[in-house]
Specification:
Helix content of chain B: 25-40%
Number of domains of chain A: 1
CATH superfamily of the largest domain in chain B: HUPs
Number of strands of chain A: 13
Largest sheet of chain B: 7 strands, parallel
Largest interface: A-B, 75 and 89 residues
CATH architecture of chain A: 3-Layer(aba) Sandwich
Order of helices and strands of chain A: EEEHEHEHEHEEEEHHHEEEH
Number of domains of chain B: 2
Oligomer: heterodimer
Radius of gyration of chain B: 22 Å
Strand order of the largest sheet of chain B: 7-11-6-1-4-5-12
Distance between the termini of chain B: 61 Å
CATH topology of chain A: Rossmann fold
Strand order of the largest sheet of chain A: 9-8-7-10-6-1-4-5-11
CATH architecture of the largest domain in chain B: 3-Layer(aba) Sandwich
Largest sheet of chain A: 9 strands, mixed
Helix content of chain A: 25-40%
Structural class of chain B: alpha/beta
Radius of gyration of chain A: 23 Å
Shape of chain A: globular
Number of helices of chain B: 8
Number of helices of chain A: 8
Shape of chain B: globular
Structural class of chain A: alpha/beta
CATH class of the largest domain in chain B: Alpha Beta
Number of strands of chain B: 18
Strand content of chain A: 25-35%
Distance between the termini of chain A: 64 Å
Chain lengths: 289, 339
Protein backbone atom coordinates (compact mmCIF):
# COMPACT_ATOMS: atom_id res chain seq x y z
CA UNK A 1 0.00 0.00 0.00
CA UNK A 2 1.02 3.53 -0.65
CA UNK A 3 0.22 6.85 0.94
CA UNK A 4 -0.52 9.37 -1.77
CA UNK A 5 -1.25 13.07 -1.49
CA UNK A 6 -2.88 14.69 -4.51
CA UNK A 7 -2.60 18.48 -4.79
CA UNK A 8 -5.58 20.10 -6.44
CA UNK A 9 -6.77 23.62 -7.10
CA UNK A 10 -10.17 25.07 -7.65
CA UNK A 11 -9.78 27.42 -10.59
CA UNK A 12 -11.94 29.97 -12.32
CA UNK A 13 -13.13 28.47 -15.56
CA UNK A 14 -11.07 30.56 -17.95
CA UNK A 15 -13.33 29.53 -20.78
CA UNK A 16 -16.04 31.70 -19.20
CA UNK A 17 -14.24 34.91 -18.37
CA UNK A 18 -16.33 38.01 -17.77
CA UNK A 19 -15.53 41.67 -17.21
CA UNK A 20 -15.18 41.38 -13.44
CA UNK A 21 -12.37 38.86 -13.74
CA UNK A 22 -9.72 41.10 -12.20
CA UNK A 23 -9.73 43.20 -9.05
CA UNK A 24 -8.17 46.67 -8.95
CA UNK A 25 -5.03 45.33 -7.22
CA UNK A 26 -4.33 43.04 -10.16
CA UNK A 27 -5.30 39.78 -8.49
CA UNK A 28 -7.99 37.47 -9.75
CA UNK A 29 -11.55 38.09 -8.61
CA UNK A 30 -12.46 34.46 -8.02
CA UNK A 31 -15.91 35.25 -6.65
CA UNK A 32 -17.11 36.46 -10.06
CA UNK A 33 -16.30 33.29 -11.96
CA UNK A 34 -17.58 29.72 -12.20
CA UNK A 35 -15.15 27.51 -10.31
CA UNK A 36 -13.98 24.09 -11.48
CA UNK A 37 -11.54 21.32 -10.55
CA UNK A 38 -8.34 22.23 -12.36
CA UNK A 39 -8.24 19.82 -15.34
CA UNK A 40 -4.68 18.51 -14.98
CA UNK A 41 -5.24 17.96 -11.25
CA UNK A 42 -7.93 15.50 -12.32
CA UNK A 43 -5.32 13.72 -14.45
CA UNK A 44 -3.15 13.57 -11.31
CA UNK A 45 -6.03 12.12 -9.31
CA UNK A 46 -6.54 9.45 -11.97
CA UNK A 47 -2.86 8.43 -11.80
CA UNK A 48 -3.31 8.06 -8.04
CA UNK A 49 -6.51 6.04 -8.49
CA UNK A 50 -4.78 3.69 -10.93
CA UNK A 51 -2.23 2.94 -8.23
CA UNK A 52 -5.07 2.32 -5.78
CA UNK A 53 -6.67 -0.06 -8.31
CA UNK A 54 -3.50 -2.13 -8.20
CA UNK A 55 -2.79 -1.71 -4.50
CA UNK A 56 -6.26 -1.36 -2.92
CA UNK A 57 -4.87 -0.55 0.52
CA UNK A 58 -3.48 2.67 -0.90
CA UNK A 59 -4.77 5.81 0.77
CA UNK A 60 -5.33 8.96 -1.28
CA UNK A 61 -5.59 12.31 0.46
CA UNK A 62 -6.64 15.28 -1.62
CA UNK A 63 -5.15 18.60 -0.48
CA UNK A 64 -6.26 22.01 -1.68
CA UNK A 65 -5.57 25.58 -0.65
CA UNK A 66 -8.22 28.18 -1.28
CA UNK A 67 -11.36 29.84 0.03
CA UNK A 68 -14.00 27.86 1.97
CA UNK A 69 -15.86 27.03 -1.23
CA UNK A 70 -12.82 25.09 -2.51
CA UNK A 71 -14.17 22.20 -0.40
CA UNK A 72 -16.38 21.57 -3.45
CA UNK A 73 -13.48 20.01 -5.32
CA UNK A 74 -12.55 17.89 -2.31
CA UNK A 75 -16.02 16.36 -2.37
CA UNK A 76 -15.74 15.98 -6.13
CA UNK A 77 -12.48 14.08 -5.65
CA UNK A 78 -14.03 11.88 -2.98
CA UNK A 79 -16.91 11.00 -5.33
CA UNK A 80 -14.30 9.83 -7.80
CA UNK A 81 -12.29 7.78 -5.34
CA UNK A 82 -10.12 9.88 -2.99
CA UNK A 83 -10.22 8.65 0.61
CA UNK A 84 -9.97 11.97 2.40
CA UNK A 85 -9.79 15.69 1.82
CA UNK A 86 -7.86 18.51 3.45
CA UNK A 87 -8.75 22.16 2.97
CA UNK A 88 -6.09 24.72 3.74
CA UNK A 89 -7.83 28.05 4.14
CA UNK A 90 -6.88 31.32 5.79
CA UNK A 91 -7.01 35.02 4.98
CA UNK A 92 -3.26 34.97 5.54
CA UNK A 93 -2.88 33.07 2.24
CA UNK A 94 -4.62 35.74 0.16
CA UNK A 95 -2.52 37.14 -2.66
CA UNK A 96 0.10 34.38 -2.47
CA UNK A 97 2.30 33.94 -5.53
CA UNK A 98 3.54 30.49 -6.51
CA UNK A 99 6.36 30.50 -3.98
CA UNK A 100 4.17 31.51 -1.00
CA UNK A 101 1.58 28.94 -2.15
CA UNK A 102 4.22 26.21 -2.33
CA UNK A 103 5.43 27.10 1.12
CA UNK A 104 1.92 26.85 2.60
CA UNK A 105 1.26 23.54 0.82
CA UNK A 106 4.57 22.10 1.99
CA UNK A 107 3.65 22.99 5.59
CA UNK A 108 0.30 21.20 5.20
CA UNK A 109 2.02 18.15 3.67
CA UNK A 110 4.40 18.00 6.63
CA UNK A 111 1.39 18.15 8.92
CA UNK A 112 -0.28 15.27 7.03
CA UNK A 113 2.98 13.49 7.67
CA UNK A 114 4.01 10.25 6.10
CA UNK A 115 3.68 9.96 2.31
CA UNK A 116 5.18 7.95 -0.55
CA UNK A 117 3.98 10.00 -3.48
CA UNK A 118 2.71 13.47 -4.16
CA UNK A 119 0.77 13.92 -7.39
CA UNK A 120 -0.33 17.25 -8.83
CA UNK A 121 -1.41 18.67 -12.15
CA UNK A 122 1.38 20.14 -14.25
CA UNK A 123 -0.22 23.57 -14.12
CA UNK A 124 -3.46 25.36 -13.32
CA UNK A 125 -5.45 26.95 -16.12
CA UNK A 126 -5.72 30.33 -14.36
CA UNK A 127 -1.99 30.99 -14.40
CA UNK A 128 -0.32 28.30 -16.52
CA UNK A 129 2.91 28.76 -14.57
CA UNK A 130 3.66 25.09 -13.80
CA UNK A 131 5.72 26.29 -10.83
CA UNK A 132 3.93 25.05 -7.72
CA UNK A 133 4.72 21.35 -8.23
CA UNK A 134 8.51 21.74 -8.51
CA UNK A 135 8.56 24.37 -5.75
CA UNK A 136 6.70 22.09 -3.34
CA UNK A 137 9.14 19.27 -4.17
CA UNK A 138 12.07 21.57 -3.45
CA UNK A 139 10.59 22.72 -0.15
CA UNK A 140 10.13 19.08 0.91
CA UNK A 141 13.60 18.14 -0.34
CA UNK A 142 12.33 15.32 -2.59
CA UNK A 143 12.89 14.62 -6.31
CA UNK A 144 10.34 15.64 -8.93
CA UNK A 145 9.10 14.13 -12.16
CA UNK A 146 7.22 16.68 -14.24
CA UNK A 147 4.88 16.20 -17.24
CA UNK A 148 3.96 12.59 -16.39
CA UNK A 149 1.85 10.84 -18.98
CA UNK A 150 1.85 7.32 -17.59
CA UNK A 151 3.07 5.45 -14.56
CA UNK A 152 4.86 2.50 -16.12
CA UNK A 153 5.58 0.61 -12.95
CA UNK A 154 5.58 0.95 -9.20
CA UNK A 155 7.38 -1.78 -7.35
CA UNK A 156 8.09 -1.36 -3.68
CA UNK A 157 9.92 1.95 -3.38
CA UNK A 158 10.77 2.52 -7.04
CA UNK A 159 8.59 4.21 -9.64
CA UNK A 160 8.98 4.41 -13.41
CA UNK A 161 7.23 7.21 -15.23
CA UNK A 162 6.83 8.21 -18.86
CA UNK A 163 7.28 11.98 -19.26
CA UNK A 164 5.87 13.94 -22.19
CA UNK A 165 8.38 16.50 -23.48
CA UNK A 166 7.88 19.23 -26.09
CA UNK A 167 9.38 16.98 -28.71
CA UNK A 168 9.41 13.39 -27.63
CA UNK A 169 9.33 11.51 -24.36
CA UNK A 170 11.48 10.22 -21.57
CA UNK A 171 11.24 7.19 -19.31
CA UNK A 172 12.60 7.95 -15.85
CA UNK A 173 13.02 6.02 -12.64
CA UNK A 174 12.99 7.50 -9.17
CA UNK A 175 12.98 6.23 -5.62
CA UNK A 176 10.05 7.19 -3.38
CA UNK A 177 9.09 9.61 -2.04
CA UNK A 178 8.80 11.73 -5.16
CA UNK A 179 6.52 14.48 -6.46
CA UNK A 180 4.99 13.88 -9.88
CA UNK A 181 3.12 16.42 -12.00
CA UNK A 182 0.58 15.09 -14.49
CA UNK A 183 0.41 16.25 -18.10
CA UNK A 184 -2.91 16.67 -19.88
CA UNK A 185 -2.08 13.61 -22.01
CA UNK A 186 -2.25 11.39 -18.89
CA UNK A 187 -5.45 9.32 -18.64
CA UNK A 188 -8.66 11.25 -18.12
CA UNK A 189 -10.13 11.00 -14.64
CA UNK A 190 -12.86 8.41 -14.11
CA UNK A 191 -16.34 9.82 -13.44
CA UNK A 192 -18.11 10.03 -10.11
CA UNK A 193 -19.09 6.75 -8.57
CA UNK A 194 -22.79 6.67 -7.62
CA UNK A 195 -22.21 4.86 -4.32
CA UNK A 196 -19.44 7.21 -3.32
CA UNK A 197 -21.61 10.18 -4.24
CA UNK A 198 -24.26 8.99 -1.80
CA UNK A 199 -21.65 8.29 0.84
CA UNK A 200 -19.78 11.59 0.67
CA UNK A 201 -22.33 14.13 -0.49
CA UNK A 202 -22.71 15.42 3.06
CA UNK A 203 -18.99 15.56 3.73
CA UNK A 204 -18.20 19.06 4.99
CA UNK A 205 -15.51 21.24 6.44
CA UNK A 206 -15.79 22.93 9.83
CA UNK A 207 -16.67 26.25 8.21
CA UNK A 208 -19.47 24.62 6.25
CA UNK A 209 -20.80 22.90 9.37
CA UNK A 210 -21.16 26.25 11.16
CA UNK A 211 -24.31 26.83 9.20
CA UNK A 212 -25.67 23.28 9.43
CA UNK A 213 -28.64 22.01 11.47
CA UNK A 214 -28.36 20.01 14.71
CA UNK A 215 -29.68 16.82 13.07
CA UNK A 216 -27.05 17.09 10.47
CA UNK A 217 -24.31 17.61 13.03
CA UNK A 218 -25.51 14.56 14.95
CA UNK A 219 -25.15 12.38 11.86
CA UNK A 220 -21.67 13.76 11.48
CA UNK A 221 -20.57 12.67 14.90
CA UNK A 222 -21.37 9.09 13.95
CA UNK A 223 -19.64 9.15 10.62
CA UNK A 224 -16.16 10.56 10.95
CA UNK A 225 -15.46 10.13 7.23
CA UNK A 226 -17.89 12.98 6.61
CA UNK A 227 -15.55 15.45 8.28
CA UNK A 228 -13.26 17.15 5.78
CA UNK A 229 -10.15 18.36 7.54
CA UNK A 230 -9.85 22.12 7.59
CA UNK A 231 -6.63 23.82 8.56
CA UNK A 232 -5.61 27.46 8.90
CA UNK A 233 -2.09 28.91 8.68
CA UNK A 234 -1.48 28.32 12.39
CA UNK A 235 -2.66 24.70 12.24
CA UNK A 236 0.12 23.81 9.81
CA UNK A 237 2.79 25.67 11.79
CA UNK A 238 3.56 28.06 8.96
CA UNK A 239 5.60 31.20 9.34
CA UNK A 240 3.23 34.09 8.57
CA UNK A 241 6.03 36.16 7.06
CA UNK A 242 6.32 33.66 4.21
CA UNK A 243 2.61 33.71 3.36
CA UNK A 244 0.27 35.83 1.28
CA UNK A 245 1.17 39.03 -0.55
CA UNK A 246 3.89 39.83 1.99
CA UNK A 247 5.55 36.44 1.57
CA UNK A 248 5.49 36.63 -2.22
CA UNK A 249 8.71 37.76 -3.93
CA UNK A 250 6.76 38.72 -7.06
CA UNK A 251 4.51 41.79 -6.98
CA UNK A 252 2.08 42.96 -9.61
CA UNK A 253 3.29 46.43 -10.55
CA UNK A 254 0.48 47.21 -12.90
CA UNK A 255 -2.23 45.70 -14.99
CA UNK A 256 -3.05 47.29 -18.28
CA UNK A 257 -5.83 46.91 -20.71
CA UNK A 258 -4.38 46.34 -24.08
CA UNK A 259 -5.55 48.54 -26.84
CA UNK A 260 -4.68 47.14 -30.20
CA UNK A 261 -3.23 49.54 -32.64
CA UNK A 262 -6.10 49.12 -34.98
CA UNK A 263 -5.18 48.96 -38.63
CA UNK A 264 -7.37 50.33 -41.32
CA UNK A 265 -8.89 47.08 -42.48
CA UNK A 266 -10.43 46.51 -45.84
CA UNK A 267 -13.60 44.49 -45.43
CA UNK A 268 -14.39 41.95 -48.13
CA UNK A 269 -17.32 39.65 -48.71
CA UNK A 270 -17.18 35.94 -49.41
CA UNK A 271 -18.33 36.62 -52.97
CA UNK A 272 -16.29 35.38 -55.93
CA UNK A 273 -15.37 38.85 -57.12
CA UNK A 274 -13.93 39.92 -53.77
CA UNK A 275 -11.92 36.72 -53.27
CA UNK A 276 -10.53 36.78 -56.78
CA UNK A 277 -9.57 40.44 -56.35
CA UNK A 278 -7.75 39.61 -53.09
CA UNK A 279 -5.81 36.72 -54.58
CA UNK A 280 -4.75 38.86 -57.56
CA UNK A 281 -3.70 41.60 -55.15
CA UNK A 282 -1.61 39.22 -52.99
CA UNK A 283 0.08 37.78 -56.07
CA UNK A 284 0.78 41.24 -57.50
CA UNK A 285 2.39 42.34 -54.20
CA UNK A 286 4.49 39.14 -54.21
CA UNK A 287 3.06 38.30 -50.80
CA UNK A 288 2.18 34.90 -52.20
CA UNK A 289 3.13 33.02 -55.31
CA UNK B 1 28.19 39.99 -8.95
CA UNK B 2 24.94 41.69 -9.86
CA UNK B 3 25.07 40.59 -13.47
CA UNK B 4 22.52 39.22 -15.91
CA UNK B 5 22.81 35.46 -16.39
CA UNK B 6 21.22 33.28 -19.06
CA UNK B 7 20.87 29.54 -18.47
CA UNK B 8 21.77 28.11 -21.90
CA UNK B 9 19.96 24.91 -22.73
CA UNK B 10 22.12 22.21 -24.31
CA UNK B 11 20.18 19.48 -26.07
CA UNK B 12 21.07 17.01 -28.84
CA UNK B 13 24.53 18.47 -29.33
CA UNK B 14 23.59 22.10 -29.61
CA UNK B 15 22.50 25.17 -27.69
CA UNK B 16 18.80 25.78 -28.23
CA UNK B 17 17.63 28.83 -30.18
CA UNK B 18 15.65 30.17 -27.25
CA UNK B 19 18.92 30.53 -25.32
CA UNK B 20 20.47 32.64 -28.08
CA UNK B 21 17.33 34.76 -28.14
CA UNK B 22 17.62 35.29 -24.38
CA UNK B 23 21.33 36.12 -24.66
CA UNK B 24 20.41 38.83 -27.16
CA UNK B 25 17.78 40.24 -24.79
CA UNK B 26 20.16 39.77 -21.86
CA UNK B 27 22.82 41.81 -23.66
CA UNK B 28 20.50 44.77 -24.02
CA UNK B 29 19.32 44.50 -20.40
CA UNK B 30 22.95 44.31 -19.20
CA UNK B 31 23.77 47.42 -21.25
CA UNK B 32 20.93 49.33 -19.62
CA UNK B 33 21.99 48.15 -16.17
CA UNK B 34 25.65 48.73 -16.92
CA UNK B 35 26.57 45.23 -15.83
CA UNK B 36 27.98 42.09 -17.40
CA UNK B 37 26.18 39.38 -19.34
CA UNK B 38 26.93 35.85 -18.18
CA UNK B 39 25.97 32.50 -19.65
CA UNK B 40 25.71 29.17 -17.86
CA UNK B 41 26.00 25.93 -19.83
CA UNK B 42 25.63 22.54 -18.17
CA UNK B 43 26.01 19.34 -20.15
CA UNK B 44 28.43 16.86 -21.59
CA UNK B 45 30.62 17.11 -24.69
CA UNK B 46 30.76 20.89 -24.60
CA UNK B 47 34.18 21.38 -26.26
CA UNK B 48 34.18 24.61 -28.25
CA UNK B 49 30.69 25.60 -27.12
CA UNK B 50 32.05 28.98 -25.97
CA UNK B 51 32.61 30.03 -29.59
CA UNK B 52 28.92 29.65 -30.37
CA UNK B 53 27.87 31.62 -27.30
CA UNK B 54 30.48 34.42 -27.31
CA UNK B 55 29.06 35.87 -30.52
CA UNK B 56 25.99 37.12 -28.71
CA UNK B 57 28.09 39.58 -26.76
CA UNK B 58 28.54 37.46 -23.64
CA UNK B 59 31.17 38.66 -21.12
CA UNK B 60 31.64 35.45 -19.12
CA UNK B 61 30.62 31.85 -19.75
CA UNK B 62 30.41 29.31 -16.96
CA UNK B 63 30.83 25.84 -18.45
CA UNK B 64 30.35 22.59 -16.57
CA UNK B 65 31.14 19.61 -18.81
CA UNK B 66 30.31 16.44 -16.92
CA UNK B 67 28.50 13.21 -17.69
CA UNK B 68 26.30 13.68 -14.63
CA UNK B 69 24.84 16.79 -16.29
CA UNK B 70 23.63 15.15 -19.51
CA UNK B 71 20.93 14.34 -20.39
CA UNK B 72 19.24 16.97 -18.27
CA UNK B 73 17.80 15.87 -14.95
CA UNK B 74 16.36 18.25 -12.38
CA UNK B 75 18.44 17.74 -9.28
CA UNK B 76 22.02 17.93 -10.63
CA UNK B 77 21.25 21.03 -12.73
CA UNK B 78 19.52 22.65 -9.76
CA UNK B 79 22.42 21.86 -7.44
CA UNK B 80 25.03 23.34 -9.78
CA UNK B 81 22.99 26.42 -10.75
CA UNK B 82 22.00 27.18 -7.15
CA UNK B 83 25.54 26.63 -5.90
CA UNK B 84 26.96 28.96 -8.53
CA UNK B 85 24.29 31.64 -8.15
CA UNK B 86 24.93 31.76 -4.42
CA UNK B 87 28.49 32.78 -5.26
CA UNK B 88 28.02 34.88 -8.37
CA UNK B 89 24.81 36.55 -7.13
CA UNK B 90 23.26 37.50 -10.46
CA UNK B 91 20.54 40.16 -10.29
CA UNK B 92 18.64 38.62 -13.20
CA UNK B 93 18.41 35.01 -14.42
CA UNK B 94 16.65 34.19 -17.69
CA UNK B 95 15.72 30.77 -19.02
CA UNK B 96 13.69 29.33 -21.88
CA UNK B 97 10.09 28.39 -21.08
CA UNK B 98 10.82 24.90 -22.39
CA UNK B 99 10.31 21.43 -20.92
CA UNK B 100 13.67 21.93 -19.21
CA UNK B 101 13.34 25.59 -18.18
CA UNK B 102 9.88 25.09 -16.73
CA UNK B 103 11.13 22.11 -14.70
CA UNK B 104 14.34 23.78 -13.50
CA UNK B 105 13.29 27.42 -13.00
CA UNK B 106 10.80 26.87 -10.18
CA UNK B 107 13.16 24.48 -8.40
CA UNK B 108 15.95 27.10 -8.44
CA UNK B 109 13.60 29.92 -7.46
CA UNK B 110 12.32 27.94 -4.48
CA UNK B 111 15.81 27.09 -3.38
CA UNK B 112 16.94 30.73 -3.56
CA UNK B 113 13.57 32.16 -2.42
CA UNK B 114 13.47 34.37 -5.48
CA UNK B 115 10.54 35.40 -7.62
CA UNK B 116 9.96 33.73 -10.97
CA UNK B 117 7.56 34.80 -13.70
CA UNK B 118 6.65 32.26 -16.37
CA UNK B 119 6.12 32.86 -20.09
CA UNK B 120 7.02 36.54 -20.27
CA UNK B 121 6.27 38.24 -23.57
CA UNK B 122 8.47 41.24 -22.84
CA UNK B 123 11.26 42.21 -20.45
CA UNK B 124 12.21 45.80 -19.63
CA UNK B 125 14.05 47.76 -16.97
CA UNK B 126 12.18 50.32 -14.90
CA UNK B 127 11.35 51.62 -11.46
CA UNK B 128 8.78 50.49 -8.95
CA UNK B 129 7.14 52.48 -6.24
CA UNK B 130 5.98 50.54 -3.20
CA UNK B 131 3.36 53.00 -1.97
CA UNK B 132 2.68 51.14 1.27
CA UNK B 133 6.30 51.08 2.31
CA UNK B 134 6.94 54.52 0.80
CA UNK B 135 9.92 53.19 -1.08
CA UNK B 136 11.00 53.45 -4.67
CA UNK B 137 13.12 50.80 -6.31
CA UNK B 138 15.19 51.57 -9.37
CA UNK B 139 16.41 49.38 -12.22
CA UNK B 140 14.08 46.47 -11.61
CA UNK B 141 13.26 43.88 -14.23
CA UNK B 142 9.74 44.32 -15.56
CA UNK B 143 8.42 40.86 -16.30
CA UNK B 144 5.57 41.48 -18.66
CA UNK B 145 3.02 38.82 -19.56
CA UNK B 146 -0.61 38.57 -20.55
CA UNK B 147 -2.57 37.85 -17.40
CA UNK B 148 -5.56 35.78 -16.71
CA UNK B 149 -8.59 36.49 -18.84
CA UNK B 150 -9.50 39.31 -21.26
CA UNK B 151 -7.24 41.84 -22.83
CA UNK B 152 -4.98 42.36 -19.87
CA UNK B 153 -1.23 42.51 -19.57
CA UNK B 154 0.46 42.44 -16.17
CA UNK B 155 3.87 43.81 -15.24
CA UNK B 156 5.45 41.77 -12.45
CA UNK B 157 8.45 42.91 -10.40
CA UNK B 158 10.58 41.32 -7.69
CA UNK B 159 11.55 44.28 -5.51
CA UNK B 160 13.51 42.59 -2.73
CA UNK B 161 14.57 39.09 -3.71
CA UNK B 162 17.40 38.17 -6.03
CA UNK B 163 17.85 36.91 -8.62
CA UNK B 164 14.85 38.23 -10.52
CA UNK B 165 13.91 35.24 -12.64
CA UNK B 166 11.85 34.92 -15.79
CA UNK B 167 11.13 32.30 -18.42
CA UNK B 168 10.39 33.19 -22.05
CA UNK B 169 9.07 30.98 -24.86
CA UNK B 170 11.07 30.31 -27.98
CA UNK B 171 10.63 32.90 -30.69
CA UNK B 172 9.41 35.72 -28.44
CA UNK B 173 12.78 37.53 -28.48
CA UNK B 174 14.89 37.98 -31.60
CA UNK B 175 18.40 36.55 -31.70
CA UNK B 176 21.17 38.74 -32.98
CA UNK B 177 24.90 38.08 -33.23
CA UNK B 178 26.82 41.05 -31.80
CA UNK B 179 30.28 40.16 -33.09
CA UNK B 180 31.69 37.06 -34.79
CA UNK B 181 35.09 37.69 -33.25
CA UNK B 182 34.07 38.55 -29.70
CA UNK B 183 35.65 36.26 -27.12
CA UNK B 184 34.06 35.74 -23.74
CA UNK B 185 35.98 34.84 -20.62
CA UNK B 186 35.48 31.12 -19.89
CA UNK B 187 35.12 29.89 -16.33
CA UNK B 188 35.03 26.17 -15.53
CA UNK B 189 33.77 25.82 -11.99
CA UNK B 190 34.52 22.74 -9.93
CA UNK B 191 31.05 21.24 -9.72
CA UNK B 192 32.10 18.52 -7.29
CA UNK B 193 31.55 21.03 -4.50
CA UNK B 194 27.87 21.44 -5.47
CA UNK B 195 26.78 17.92 -6.45
CA UNK B 196 25.83 15.43 -3.80
CA UNK B 197 25.22 11.72 -4.19
CA UNK B 198 21.50 12.16 -3.53
CA UNK B 199 21.20 14.53 -6.49
CA UNK B 200 21.72 11.53 -8.77
CA UNK B 201 18.79 9.35 -7.64
CA UNK B 202 16.56 9.96 -10.67
CA UNK B 203 17.71 7.91 -13.66
CA UNK B 204 16.77 8.23 -17.30
CA UNK B 205 15.97 4.79 -18.68
CA UNK B 206 15.03 5.81 -22.20
CA UNK B 207 14.83 9.03 -24.11
CA UNK B 208 13.45 9.90 -27.52
CA UNK B 209 13.65 13.41 -28.82
CA UNK B 210 12.06 13.90 -32.22
CA UNK B 211 13.10 16.76 -34.38
CA UNK B 212 10.13 18.93 -35.16
CA UNK B 213 8.51 18.34 -38.53
CA UNK B 214 6.65 21.59 -38.35
CA UNK B 215 8.61 24.74 -38.95
CA UNK B 216 6.24 27.53 -38.06
CA UNK B 217 8.85 29.99 -36.86
CA UNK B 218 10.62 30.20 -40.20
CA UNK B 219 7.55 30.07 -42.37
CA UNK B 220 6.82 33.22 -44.36
CA UNK B 221 3.13 32.44 -44.76
CA UNK B 222 1.04 30.99 -41.95
CA UNK B 223 -2.57 29.89 -42.06
CA UNK B 224 -3.86 29.63 -38.53
CA UNK B 225 -7.12 28.09 -37.41
CA UNK B 226 -9.08 28.81 -34.26
CA UNK B 227 -12.01 27.34 -32.45
CA UNK B 228 -14.25 28.80 -35.16
CA UNK B 229 -12.86 26.31 -37.68
CA UNK B 230 -15.25 23.96 -35.96
CA UNK B 231 -13.72 20.52 -36.49
CA UNK B 232 -10.68 18.45 -37.29
CA UNK B 233 -12.17 17.80 -40.76
CA UNK B 234 -12.47 21.52 -41.46
CA UNK B 235 -8.79 21.91 -40.57
CA UNK B 236 -8.11 19.90 -43.74
CA UNK B 237 -9.24 22.95 -45.70
CA UNK B 238 -6.42 24.89 -44.06
CA UNK B 239 -3.86 22.21 -44.96
CA UNK B 240 -5.13 22.25 -48.51
CA UNK B 241 -4.77 26.02 -48.84
CA UNK B 242 -1.34 25.82 -47.17
CA UNK B 243 -0.25 23.17 -49.65
CA UNK B 244 -1.46 25.25 -52.58
CA UNK B 245 0.19 28.56 -51.67
CA UNK B 246 3.24 27.16 -49.85
CA UNK B 247 2.37 27.93 -46.26
CA UNK B 248 2.49 26.26 -42.85
CA UNK B 249 -0.57 25.64 -40.66
CA UNK B 250 -0.79 27.06 -37.14
CA UNK B 251 -3.54 27.12 -34.54
CA UNK B 252 -4.86 28.98 -31.54
CA UNK B 253 -4.88 27.36 -28.14
CA UNK B 254 -8.66 26.92 -28.28
CA UNK B 255 -8.31 24.87 -31.47
CA UNK B 256 -5.55 22.74 -29.92
CA UNK B 257 -7.54 22.22 -26.72
CA UNK B 258 -10.56 21.19 -28.80
CA UNK B 259 -8.40 18.53 -30.45
CA UNK B 260 -8.61 20.00 -33.97
CA UNK B 261 -4.83 19.84 -34.37
CA UNK B 262 -1.52 19.19 -32.56
CA UNK B 263 -0.05 21.21 -29.72
CA UNK B 264 3.08 21.67 -31.85
CA UNK B 265 1.13 24.06 -34.07
CA UNK B 266 -0.02 26.35 -31.27
CA UNK B 267 0.75 30.04 -31.75
CA UNK B 268 0.61 32.47 -28.87
CA UNK B 269 1.93 33.15 -25.39
CA UNK B 270 2.08 29.50 -24.41
CA UNK B 271 2.93 28.33 -27.92
CA UNK B 272 5.19 29.71 -30.61
CA UNK B 273 5.71 33.34 -31.54
CA UNK B 274 5.78 33.98 -35.29
CA UNK B 275 6.56 36.93 -37.55
CA UNK B 276 5.50 35.87 -41.05
CA UNK B 277 5.03 37.98 -44.14
CA UNK B 278 1.38 36.91 -44.25
CA UNK B 279 -0.84 35.56 -41.47
CA UNK B 280 -4.24 34.23 -42.42
CA UNK B 281 -6.38 33.84 -39.29
CA UNK B 282 -9.33 31.52 -39.84
CA UNK B 283 -12.06 31.45 -37.20
CA UNK B 284 -9.77 33.01 -34.60
CA UNK B 285 -11.38 35.55 -32.28
CA UNK B 286 -8.11 37.06 -31.08
CA UNK B 287 -7.49 36.58 -27.35
CA UNK B 288 -4.53 38.63 -26.14
CA UNK B 289 -2.60 35.39 -25.52
CA UNK B 290 -2.92 34.56 -29.21
CA UNK B 291 -2.21 38.10 -30.42
CA UNK B 292 1.01 38.05 -28.36
CA UNK B 293 2.30 35.33 -30.67
CA UNK B 294 1.46 36.89 -34.05
CA UNK B 295 1.18 40.66 -33.73
CA UNK B 296 4.42 41.29 -35.62
CA UNK B 297 3.09 39.65 -38.78
CA UNK B 298 3.62 41.98 -41.73
CA UNK B 299 0.15 41.40 -43.13
CA UNK B 300 -2.92 39.85 -41.54
CA UNK B 301 -6.03 38.49 -43.22
CA UNK B 302 -8.89 37.54 -40.94
CA UNK B 303 -11.57 35.16 -42.13
CA UNK B 304 -14.40 35.22 -39.64
CA UNK B 305 -18.18 35.19 -39.63
CA UNK B 306 -18.14 37.46 -36.59
CA UNK B 307 -17.65 41.02 -37.81
CA UNK B 308 -16.67 42.08 -34.28
CA UNK B 309 -13.92 39.52 -33.66
CA UNK B 310 -11.09 41.41 -31.88
CA UNK B 311 -8.50 40.09 -34.34
CA UNK B 312 -10.20 42.03 -37.14
CA UNK B 313 -8.74 45.22 -35.68
CA UNK B 314 -5.27 43.91 -36.48
CA UNK B 315 -6.21 42.74 -39.94
CA UNK B 316 -5.35 44.38 -43.21
CA UNK B 317 -8.15 42.44 -44.86
CA UNK B 318 -11.24 41.09 -43.18
CA UNK B 319 -13.28 38.54 -45.08
CA UNK B 320 -16.69 38.06 -43.57
CA UNK B 321 -18.25 34.67 -44.05
CA UNK B 322 -17.79 30.95 -43.61
CA UNK B 323 -14.38 29.49 -44.27
CA UNK B 324 -15.91 26.32 -45.80
CA UNK B 325 -17.06 28.65 -48.55
CA UNK B 326 -14.13 31.08 -48.66
CA UNK B 327 -11.07 28.81 -48.57
CA UNK B 328 -12.00 26.71 -51.64
CA UNK B 329 -12.49 29.98 -53.52
CA UNK B 330 -9.08 31.22 -52.42
CA UNK B 331 -7.54 27.99 -53.72
CA UNK B 332 -9.43 28.23 -57.01
CA UNK B 333 -8.57 31.88 -57.68
CA UNK B 334 -4.97 31.43 -56.62
CA UNK B 335 -4.56 28.63 -59.17
CA UNK B 336 -6.37 30.66 -61.83
CA UNK B 337 -4.23 33.77 -61.38
CA UNK B 338 -0.77 32.37 -60.71
CA UNK B 339 1.45 32.08 -63.73
Amino acid sequence: MYKIIVLAKQVPDTRNVGKDAMKADGTVNRAALPAIFNPEDLNALELALEIKDRYPETRITLLTMGPVRAAEILREGMYRGADAGVLLTDKAFAGSDTLATSYALSCAIRKIGDFDLILAGRQAIDGDTAQVGPQVAEKLGIPQITYAEEIISLVEKTIRVKRRLERGFELVESPLPVLITAHSTAPECRPRNAKRLMKYKRATTLSERHSASDDYLASHLEKSYLAITEWCAKDVNSDLVQLGLGGSPTKVRQVENIVFQAKESKVLTAGDADIEWLMQELIAQHTIG
Amino acid sequence: MNNVCVYCEFEEGRIQDVSFELLTKGRSLANQLNCKLEALVLGEGLAGIEDEISKYGVDSIYIADDKRLYPYTTLPHTAVAVGLFKETKPQIVLMGATSIGRDLGPRISSSLTSGLTADCTNLEIGEYEDKKAGRTYEHLLYQIRPAFGGNIVATIVNPDNRPQMATVREGVMKKEIISETHKAEVIRPDIGQYLREEDLVVKIIERQIESSKINLKNSSIIIAGGYGVGSKENFNLLYELAHTIGAEVGASRAAVDAGFTDKERQIGQTGITVRPKLYIACGISGQIQHIAGMQDSAMVISINNDANAPINKLADYVIQGNLENIIPKMIRYYKKNIK
